[in-house]
């Protein structure tokens, strides 16, 4: 007689190698006394997922598809071969605790009426995911969901039935719909129903399967007493038109299948409505991020200059009467504001992920340009140095306040790839602390025992000092402990990262950081623009201003100046070898460095105008030393 394993875990993967690796480590760490077979079905990934599984987890039963056959078909490939008494469908971007198989087996044995079970899911930062338990998506429920009305009544049985907002997420309970990210099914139930319906490519198959299970007389059960991490890797996709189309098309298939073709038409209307609504929302968001914030700041800068000019005019400059000329108020002051805004923009201050230092650097550069403009202007254009300085200070005050408001409202995101970040690591290993200390500017160390005895104090410190990351060392502390701590820290708004065992790689919601990589920030799109800005400012303003004071006159051909202004030539660049990265081969000052791998990782990946200034300063020091020698 064939002895069946207790569990068969089926994971369908597509281009999420790092998350899959962490997921598999967690699964194998949770096996304990149970017999478990693990299946991975790769849906034609273009990353190293297949190779990684084959090399790092030889015990995994790997099925590598040559094309993406969809979620349902890929799952069914393994389900038809699986031999476990319980079949666990698991997403690759999940982390399970060491207790998961104990909990699942105990619950299923205690509730023979249950055909399938789900679990309480948290995102990577420890926040509860409402899709952990759901109600039946009838046309009414779907309409309320897509319209967003449920957000106004989060605990209403009528208006938030889709997420069962009227029930507690902390209580075990029967539910209608389970999530495909974690679905535990009895083997005999899956065979009786016929596995996942394959007419769905993505989304909807878990709803259909849950409904079929209810129609067959079984119950669906939500397990609240244990919990898993489900990273929000799909969050950006859920705001896309493609997601809206696929999801509501799946709902149309489901409705036509069980509620009649008339309701299917309703879902087609919902699809159109959803696409229009999503397109409008996405366009509005892009408009606010790309245009809205810069122009709000432009208006704020000018308002600051105007208010200070008005105050200075009435209380200092023209106490006995008179006023500044209109060309100053409506010409020069708007120009000052525009210079500050453009300087912030060209310094990277309006990127999707923003650093306050970028905005402050841009503000400083803009102020220098204004000073140079003021100094080089005719006498009749120099109206007031006080307004120039105080107006810039008001812009600085605005930037500091406004950026923090935007971050609080989550309209902008912090830069998660900067190199000088602060990390607090929860580990029992000093070796792991040493690894992280080499990457992050400041690393605080808390072992598990200390944390358990003084958690409240730790949480207060965390809220007060706001480190960039909390790192969970998955090798020296359990996944169960990491998940529990993340849940307890969910209201601190700190990014949680989880270490992949035996690697210097951490993963979190929508971020993977490899501490062994030199290139942390791969966003090279802004580099050419920033360099053009530096070249232009240096040639037009800095060189003319300081040229009379140079001990050794530099020679720059007029043609070179023309090419720099037209963007054909750089002031500082490298040789031909790195054209594939950023084309800076045409330049005046050669770095003289043959180690181009160093240049590509340090110079290009973290370029800023200050780096070029430092290079010029260093070259000048070398030149002076050679003269003296």
UniProtKB/TrEMBL annotation:
Please state every residue range assigned to the domain named Glycosyltransferase 2-like: 8-193
Q: Which UniProt keywords apply?
A: Membrane, Transmembrane, Transmembrane helix
Q: Which Pfam families match?
A: Glycos_transf_2 (PF00535)
Question: What InterPro entries does this protein's entry cite?
Answer: Glyco_trans_2-like (IPR001173), Nucleotide-diphossugar_trans (IPR029044)
Membrane spanning segments where?
A: 265-284, 291-308, 328-347, 359-377, 383-402, 533-550
The entry's protein name is: Glycosyltransferase 2-like domain-containing protein
């Amino acid at each position: 007689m064939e002895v069946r394993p207790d569990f068969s875990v089926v994971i369908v993967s597509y281009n999420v190698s790092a998350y899959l690796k962490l997921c598999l480590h967690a699964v194998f760490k949770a096996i304990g006394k149970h017999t478990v077979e693990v299946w991975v079905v790769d849906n034609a990934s273009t990353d190293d997922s297949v190779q990684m599984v084959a090399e790092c987890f030889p015990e995994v039963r790997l099925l590598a598809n040559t094309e993406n056959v969809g979620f349902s078909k890929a799952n069914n490939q393994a389900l038809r071969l699986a031999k476990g008494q319980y079949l666990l469908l698991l997403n690759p971007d999940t982390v399970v605790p060491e207790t998961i198989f104990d909990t699942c087996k105990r619950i299923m044995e205690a509730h023979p009426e249950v055909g399938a079970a789900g679990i309480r899911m948290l995102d990577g930062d420890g926040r509860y995911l409402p899709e952990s338990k759901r109600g039946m998506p009838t046309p009414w429920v779907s309409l309320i969901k897509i319209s967003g009305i449920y957000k106004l009544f989060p605990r209403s049985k009528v208006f938030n039935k889709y997420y069962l907002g009227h029930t507690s997420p902390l209580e075990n309970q029967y539910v209608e719909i389970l999530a495909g990210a974690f679905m535990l099914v009895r083997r005999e139930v899956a065979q009786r129903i016929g596995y996942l319906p394959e007419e769905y490519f993505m989304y909807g198959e878990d709803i259909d399967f849950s409904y079929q299970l209810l129609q067959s007389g079984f119950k669906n059960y939500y397990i609240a007493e244990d919990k898993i991490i489900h990273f929000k890797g799909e969050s950006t996709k859920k705001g896309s038109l493609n997601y809206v189309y696929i999801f509501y098309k799946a709902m149309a298939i489901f409705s036509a299948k069980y509620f009649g073709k008339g309701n299917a038409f309703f879902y087609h209307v919902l699809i159109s409505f959803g696409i229009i609504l999503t397109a409008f929302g996405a366009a509005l968001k892009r408009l606010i991020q790309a245009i809205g914030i810069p122009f709000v700041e432009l208006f704020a800068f000018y308002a600051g200059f105007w208010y200070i000019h008005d105050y200075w005019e009435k209380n200092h400059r023209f106490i006995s009467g008179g006023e500044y000329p209109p060309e100053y108020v409506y010409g020069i002051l708007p120009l000052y504001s525009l210079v500050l805004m453009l300087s912030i923009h060209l310094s990277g201050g309006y990127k999707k992920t923003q650093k306050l230092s970028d905005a402050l650097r841009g503000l400083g550069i803009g102020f220098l340009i204004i000073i140079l403009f003021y100094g080089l202007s005719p006498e009749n254009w120099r109206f007031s140095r006080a307004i120039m300085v105080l107006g810039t200070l008001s812009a600085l005050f605005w930037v500091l306040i406004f950026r923090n408001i935007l971050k609080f409202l989550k309209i902008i995101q912090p830069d998660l790839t900067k190199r000088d970040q602060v990390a607090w690591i929860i580990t029992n290993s000093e070796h792991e602390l040493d690894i992280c200390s080499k990457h992050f500017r400041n690393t605080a160390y808390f072992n598990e025992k200390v944390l358990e005895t003084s958690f409240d104090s730790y949480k207060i410190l965390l809220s007060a000092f706001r480190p960039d990351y909390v790192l969970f060392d998955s090798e020296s502390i359990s996944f169960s402990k990491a998940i529990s701590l993340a849940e307890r820290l969910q209201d601190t708004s700190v990014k949680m990262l989880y270490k992949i065992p035996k690697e210097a790689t951490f993963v979190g919601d929508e971020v993977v950081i490899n501490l062994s990589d030199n290139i942390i920030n791969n966003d090279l799109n802004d580099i050419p623009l920033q360099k053009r800005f530096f070249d232009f400012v240096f040639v037009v303003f800095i060189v003319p201003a300081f040229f009379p004071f140079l001990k050794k006159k530099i020679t720059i051909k007029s043609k070179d100046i023309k090419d720099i202004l037209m963007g054909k030539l750089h002031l500082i660049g490298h040789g031909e070898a790195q054209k594939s990265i950023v084309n800076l081969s045409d330049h005046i000052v050669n770095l003289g460095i043959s180690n181009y791998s160093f240049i590509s990782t340090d110079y290009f990946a973290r370029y800023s105008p200050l780096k070029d200034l430092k290079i010029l300063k260093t070259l000048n020091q070398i030149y002076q030393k050679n003269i003296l020698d």
